[in-house]
Amino acid sequence: MAAPATGGKLASVGDAAQDAASRGxxxxxxxxxxKLLKSGGPDITVGxxxxxxxxxxxAWMVSVLLRRAIRRYADRQTNADPAAFYTVSRxxxxxxxxxxxxxxxxxxxxxxxxxxxxxxxxxxxLGFGLQAIFSNFVAGLILLFDxxxxxxxxxxxxxxxxxxxxxxxxxATRITTNDNIDILVxxxxxxxxxxxxxxLRDGSRRMRIPFGVAYGAAKETVKQAALEAAAxxxxxxxxxxxxxxxxxxxxxxxxxLNFELVVWLTAEATKRPGAVKAAYLWALHSALERHGIxxxxxxxxxxxxxxxxxxxxxxxxLLRAIAAGEDVVEPPPRPAPERPAEAATNDAVQDVExxxxxxxxxxxxxxxxxxxxxxx
Length: 376
What we know:
Blueprint: H1 2-32, H2 46-76, H3 82-107, H4 116-146, E1 154-156, E2 162-168, E3 172-176, E4 182-186, H5 187-192, E5 196-197, E6 206-213, H6 219-232, E7 246-252, E8 257-264, H7 267-270, H8 273-290, E9 306-307, E10 310-311, H9 312-323, H10 347-362
Antiparallel strand pairs: 1-2, 1-5, 2-3, 3-4, 6-8, 7-8, 9-10
Helix pairs in contact: 2-3, 6-8
């Protein structure tokens, strides 16, 4: 007789649990169906808001997965353009977020067809407080599609800051300097302001390294020393051809002859102008010292230009001998320094002539009658 009693107790416990579960589900359903707005507007419920949040999270996760897949595919391609794949990934991210927002509005109980009121409110918000954010967003889209600024480009801002573009996001673009400092620049500044893109068309760049030598130094010897310095620096692109290093005499200074070492850099060195310039200055100083060329500095000195027919160091040695009461010995004449044929050429003249010839080759030939060739 105990078994039926036990079975009855188990049945009653099961019924009680089922009733509790039914009441719990009814409470959850009533909570999810609870309307947050009761003023005759859209039926926004707690469940709708939860579903909207889930839709946005799902859209975000799908965007992350797709962007990772695009990045892995770009890494496997040997001839892929990283900037193009980056643009595709950012557009996919924005599109998925927009679809997630629309789905979230729909499941939340806000009809998409009745968003005119919200659009007007958004317009007012843009006019007052969101105008800068919206302009930066549009400017970011322009940068992605216009391709005038890409991830990996080395740019110079109006403030003089140099850096590499690492990321173009909704509001700002992240630039990393050579000192590993991240700078966030609003996207609108790249569209409205002036930005120097060093690597937009060609990765290589010409750099001019100024230096000065004392008056009296043979310019051919100075050129030879500067070319030796350019050959010692591994950042020099080529040593022969149209882009070989050149030495220009650019100014007659107050106490020095001012030259410029003009070199074409490699693509890797273009993005590190500060360190590259320091490397060339180091090599220039060593080369000038090897050739005995003095690097002047502002000073007030009394120079003996000539003494009894002697000049320069010979005149100074003769003056010291006279002051010390020593017997004056006629010094032997100094041999003239050798001047290589390559060092005797004027690089500035050659550079201008090469540019003129290049422009002449780029222009279309005129017909024999002298009339302009019609455009195709």
